[in-house]
Design goal:
By secondary structure, the protein is of the alpha+beta class. It has helices spanning 10-13, 17-26, 68-80, and strands at 2-6, 32-36, 48-51, 57-60, 99-103. A hairpin with a 5-residue loop joins strand 3 (48-51) and strand 4 (57-60). It is globular and about 30 Å long. The protein starts with a strand and ends with a strand. 30% of the residues are buried.
Amino acid sequence: MIVTLCASCALGRSGFATPLQTALTAEGLTARVATVDCMSGCTRPSTCAFRAPGKTAYLFGDLTADDLPDLLTFARHYAASPDGNLPDARVIGGLRMKAIARIPG
């Protein structure tokens, strides 16, 4: 899975990509965290996208470092899902209220 973090927003500028990569690796998840200059999510800044080949992609916004546990929970469920869809979004806690888009794979 590829996790992309906006480097222009506060979360990206804080260096959050490093602890996110470390936490994903510690969970045993095969993921690459990348940053891009701008994800154009300015109305809901500090955006992060999850995508994998053949899976639905997700975009979250209004993120803070406090969302790390929910991001890890999402990543575990996303990795386990054959198509990237979650049957029940409640398992990702408050992150479900920070979803901006779900893009079919």
